[in-house]
Amino acid sequence: MTANGQAVSVTPADTLRDRLDDPHVAAALNTLLDHADVLAVLLSGLDGFLGRGDTITDSVSAAVAELRGASSAAVVPGADALKGVDLQSLATSLASLSGSVVTAAPALNTVLSSGLTKPETAAVLASIGDALGDGKAGAANPPKGIYGLWKATKDPDFARGLGFLIAVATSFGRRVNR
Asked: This protein's superkingdom (predicted)?
């Protein structure tokens, strides 16, 4: 970088200012600031979880061992399912999972603060899941040709589903341009 014909070094503050001028960085920072309280609680809980990871792993291992011991002395519902549990693999999985949760925290925060957690959205997603299963079964007899498609539009269920898809596509299109 030059100023008045002299070489000027780029400072970390200059680099930071350049990054803040990026609209995506500014939008991301605004989102973080909007959810700072949730992020603080999440990080505090995650820090506590990670700080006590060894204790949690030991407690889970002890509980599994206790259930294994109890199953030989008395009948414990579900204890047979724990006989094949590899405690070392369980501890490794818990450690790996906690690291993954830290990495995924920003994405999880975005999902948790979105409309996906609303009960009505969950109900729609459950209905879509059921419909996907039904659709797989019905795919064996697809409409034949343009006449078959036209005839399908006469079915009120098909019309409602198509109306739903059109409304979702319209709403999604509005959000894509934002």
From this structure: Bacteria
